[in-house]
Write a structure and sequence with these properties.
The chain is α/β, with parallel strands linked by helices and 242 residues long. The protein is built from seven helices and eight strands; from the N terminus they run ααβαβαβαβαβββαβ. 35% of the residues lie in helices and 15% in strands.
Length: 242
């Protein structure tokens, strides 16, 4: 399977919306649902105590994936809480936030997590952290307004599930030289990105598997066949064919 560089990943997203006429709503919904299913069906069943989940959402599409993931996790029986420090004024994201509010999902105030940086026990009440801060458009370094969040993730013992790109990692080169976050689960969307070759966690999944065959062939993705009704496939290793 081909691991994508940053420009290829962006081009494919643009092609899905432009040439293949998928809406951004569809892409975000499928990505968020894929993440929620990977957690529920493979790693942290809802009966696990505690069932509180912290979902960290950035201002772009990756953050939208996190908002959708939180909504589905709430429907599955988890108790998600959302930290969304830089809310987008885009109408789509405003709708996603409202859907979470209507599902009685708490949206944490910025001051809550900022104060938690001085409290090493703050994150221990969560069974899992969903990392949906930065996506394929991210370029290092991490902006100062997000630095305290990344530092918390680097130092926590709570398992982290990253959506597509572990936040703070370079899309192609992986974690920064000074060390980055170490997710336990990575859920790549559409096709793995080059940074996934540096992933050393427990499980790597491929999510929202609906790429048109023409697009698969155009970019020589080599995507696996779908052999089940699930929206996710577990990848056995990080071998890449570039």
């Amino acid at each position: 399977m081909k691991f994508l560089n940053q420009s290829e990943a962006i081009d494919i997203d643009n092609a899905l919306v432009g040439k293949y006429r998928f809406s951004v709503d569809q892409l975000i919904e499928m990505a968020g649902l894929s993440c929620a299913l990977a957690v529920k069906d493979f790693h942290y069943p809802v009966c696990t105590a505690p069932n509180k989940v912290l979902v960290l959402c950035g201002p772009g599409n990756n953050g939208g994936d996190g908002l959708v993931c939180a909504r589905h996790m709430k429907s599955f029986g988890y108790s998600p809480e959302i930290y969304y420090p830089k809310k987008s004024s885009n109408e789509l994201y405003e709708r996603l936030v409202q859907q979470c509010v209507d599902h009685d999902i708490p949206i944490l105030e910025n001051s809550c997590l900022e104060a938690a940086t001085a409290d090493s026990t703050f994150l221990q009440k969560y069974m899992l952290i969903i990392d949906a801060l930065f996506g394929i458009n991210f370029k290092p370094p991490v902006r100062q307004s997000f630095a305290h969040i990344i530092n918390m993730l680097k130092n926590t013992t709570v398992p982290i599930c990253s959506i597509d790109i572990p936040s703070g990692w370079d899309v192609e080169n992986g974690p920064p030289q000074e060390g980055g976050i170490k997710p336990e689960i990575l859920i790549s969307m559409l096709s793995p990105k080059m940074c996934a070759s540096h992933f050393k966690g427990k499980a790597h999944y491929l999510g929202h598997l609906f790429v048109p065959k023409k697009l698969d062939m155009e970019y020589k993705l080599g995507l696996p066949k779908i052999n089940s009704e699930l929206l996710i496939i577990k990848l056995e290793n990080n071998q890449k064919d570039l």
